[in-house]
Design brief:
- The complex is a heterodimer of chains A (199) and B (443).
- By secondary structure, chain A is mainly α.
- Chain A is 65% helix and 3% strand.
- Chain A contains ten helices and one strand.
- Chain A has helices spanning 14-22, 26-47, 51-68, 78-96, 98-103, 106-109, 124-134, 137-148, 153-160, 164-184, and one strand spanning 194-198.
- Residues 1-11, 106-122 and 194-199 of chain A have low confidence and may be disordered.
- Chain B is elongated and about 90 Å long.
- Chain B contains six helices and 24 strands.
- In chain B, strands 13, 14, 15, 16, 17, 18, 19, 20, 21, 22, 23 and 24 form a twelve-stranded antiparallel sheet that branches. Chain B has a four-stranded antiparallel sheet with strand order 3-4-12-11, with no helix packed on it.
- Chain B is an alpha+beta fold.
- Residues 1-7, 64-184, 194-201 and 226-244 of chain B have low confidence and may be disordered.
- Chain B is 15% helix and 46% strand.
- The chains are: A mainly alpha (199), B alpha+beta (443).
- Chains A and B meet through helix 2, helix 3, helix 7, helix 8 and helix 10 of A and strand 1, helix 1, helix 2, strand 15 and strand 16 of B.
- Strand 1 of chain A pairs antiparallel with strand 1 of chain B.
Chain lengths: 199, 443
């Protein structure tokens, strides 16, 4: 007679999922995808022009994740590693676009303007993300990388092939624009700012 | 120039927090494209399998030919001059008139080797191509004397009995320079028997066969919900409505699998054969699941009403994104069965076969429905390793040369549930296929 107490309580842990993905197991890959794709699509969405572009980036990014997952080797969190791969995929995609190269350039960026579009008011998080997406492409990219992904300006300058000072300037302008947008839409209280003046 | 940098007002933390809260769910096509890109081999499985089968068959054909025609020696008690076809189409050897008493000539020849137009040795001349027609009922091919014909002249007057010569030559017409086989009088079965060391047509009983079949797999579910309703606190999802709706409570669809096998058959009589072999089955179907938060669910009950609980993110319904999951079985089977020839002639037959197939599940990838029908989870320990299938097939066979090719539909049904007793839902796999195979007589 079989004994239930001998039966392993089997569910797919992150470790099992990872091992499965390394073995190219479709079920494990699908589980990993299901777990992280919603977050990663929102990452892509912040960089992309449209939802369709974001899905293309996500697709390309996850293909890289699955083909390179053996390189992960449990150094840090799996989600962080996946996010890194996805962000790099987004940046590489943007860099293929000539307009993007121009938009991260400081001279062109100075003439940037905010497209005043109706912001869908579903939830605050969505509104914030939509505000970020309203920024000019170059601003948005630097802001995403610095403020949300946590890259330093030095790393951003390497990733985007720009000067570190350009990254800083882009970020400063992006931040100011975004803050105005958020305040205007009551997404963020208008708090006194600590201002450092640089000459 | 003055630039301002806003610092330390918590904007970055705010942005990060809100960005992390925001989730978007990709459309199904994204996963499909990813899956297609990272699992490209699946598409080639059947092609590779078919090529493998064809290669093995070709190799066996080649090997068999060499076994069948290893420099067979035939001797004719006439110094043969040239060959030609008689009016009856049988073997005819045109003999040059011997100047001396009839000398036996020994030939060694192999299949498909044409005889040179003229070969001379001593006082014997051979011209024209000589044929031995219809020497074997399975082959129905010409056997030509080889280029490197080994021709020796027995200088003695030791003329062998004509019956030892490999060809039954009854009406030797020396005066007409012809050695002919009388069609009316010669017994083709006897010729076959002498040439092939037995009567391969009538008495060949043992055959090997290989086959391949693409299959479509599905499953039938049954559940003893009455017995589990008092054990589990939550009523099953659809139990209130209809106890027998387990099949309706899941969304599932058939999927393509495959079967490849090889074995032997033994002919008991003209119409009946028994057969046994080894078979590899790959069966699968797909079920629709939704992804949700990790939740605990119950998969099985034990003998003491204890339960097997697992955590899963897969839901049968009410999840956030849907996907098709593959339930797959990899089995090795030992089919044993009987074959009945319903009708047909020597070259074309219609057959019916049935078999019992003990199977061993050596690998599987199975998502189990929870006892409340609300979740899916995996627990390989609940899947039976051993099972038994019943198979029925009908096929037509057609003789091409030495091989019998057969093709026809087959049906396979799993007799015992895929799952162990403690899992309250029973699954019976059903497979439909179209089998293509080849059979070859061994002896």
């Amino acid at each position: 007679m079989s004994n239930l107490h001998e039966i392993n309580f089997d569910f797919m842990t992150e470790e099992a999922m990872l091992k499965g993905c390394i073995r190219n197991n479709a079920a494990a890959q699908q589980e990993l995808y299901s777990l992280y794709s919603p977050k990663m699509l929102s990452v892509c969405y912040r960089y992309a022009k449209s939802r369709e572009d974001a899905e293309d980036m996500l697709q390309e990014g996850f293909i890289k994740v699955f083909t390179q997952i053996s390189q992960f080797q449990n150094r840090g969190a799996l989600e962080g590693w996946i996010r890194k791969v996805i962000v790099h995929t987004c940046i590489n995609n943007l860099k293929k676009n000539k307009k993007f190269s121009e938009s991260v350039d400081l001279i062109h960026a100075s003439g940037a303007y905010i497209r005043e579009e109706a912001i869908p008011s579903i939830v605050q998080a969505k509104q914030v993300v939509e505000c970020i997406r309203m920024l000019p492409l170059g601003y948005r990219t630097v802001l995403n990388l610095y403020a949300i992904e946590g890259y330093s300006h030095g790393e951003i300058s390497v990733m985007l092939d720009i000067e570190e000072s350009t990254s800083r300037s882009q970020y400063t302008r992006a931040r100011a624009m975004l803050e105005d947008l958020l305040v205007k839409r009551n997404l963020m209280p208008s708090t006194p700012k600590k201002v450092v003046a640089l000459t | 120039m003055e630039r301002t940098i806003y610092m330390d007002d918590g904007l970055e933390d705010f942005l990060k927090e809100k960005s992390d809260q925001y989730k978007l769910y990709p459309s199904d096509k994204v996963w499909k494209n990813i899956h297609k890109s990272i699992q490209p081999k699946r598409r080639w499985n059947y092609v590779v399998l078919t090529l493998l089968m064809v290669t093995i068959s070709a190799r066996l054909v080649d090997t068999d030919e060499h076994l069948r025609f290893p420099h067979m020696s035939y001797r004719i008690n006439q110094p043969v001059g040239s060959a030609q076809q008689s009016a009856t189409g049988r073997v005819i050897a045109e003999a040059a008139l011997p100047s001396s008493p009839v000398l036996p000539v020994s030939y060694s020849f192999t299949k498909h080797t044409p005889l040179p137009l003229s070969v001379e040795t001593k006082n014997i001349q051979i011209s024209d191509t000589r044929k031995i027609l219809d020497v074997h009922p399975d082959m129905k091919e010409e056997i030509l004397l080889p280029e490197d014909i080994a021709m020796t002249v027995n200088e003695t007057n030791n003329i062998p009995d004509i019956r030892e010569l490999g060809l039954i030559v009854r009406n030797v017409k020396n005066t007409t320079k012809l050695v002919t086989v009388d069609e009316e009088e010669e017994d083709p079965k006897e010729i076959r028997k002498v040439l092939w060391g037995g009567d391969p047509f009538k008495n060949a009983r043992l055959r090997w066969h290989v086959s391949f079949s693409p299959t479509i797999s599905y499953r039938r579910l049954t559940s003893g919900l009455e017995s589990i309703s008092d054990i589990f606190q939550g009523a099953p999802l659809l139990a209130e409505k209809n106890v027998a709706t387990v099949n309706n409570s899941v969304i599932q669809k058939p999927a393509v699998g495959a079967e490849v096998g090889a074995g032997f058959s033994y002919r008991l009589s003209n119409r009946f054969s028994v057969k046994a072999g080894l078979q590899l089955n790959y069966s699968r179907y797909q079920l629709r699941a939704m992804y949700g938060k990790p939740e605990q669910t119950t998969l099985a009950i034990g003998p003491y009403k204890d339960s097997l609980n697992v955590y899963t993110t897969l839901r049968n319904a009410d999840g956030r994104s849907a996907s098709w999951l593959n339930n797959e079985y990899f089995q090795v089977a030992l089919p044993v069965g009987i074959e009945w020839t319903i009708l047909g002639n020597e070259s074309f037959k219609w057959n019916l076969a049935a078999s019992a197939q003990p199977v061993y599940n050596f690998a599987n990838n199975i998502y189990l429905l929870s006892t409340d029908f609300r979740h899916y989870a995996q627990d390989p320990s609940l899947v039976r390793k051993w099972n038994i299938n019943a198979g029925v097939e009908t096929f037509v066979s057609y003789k091409m040369g030495a091989f019998n090719w057969h093709a026809g539909p087959q049906f396979r049904y799993q007799l015992a549930s895929s799952y162990k007793k403690q899992y309250p839902i029973n699954e019976y796999m059903v497979d439909f296929g179209f089998k293509i195979g080849v059979t070859k007589t061994i002896f």
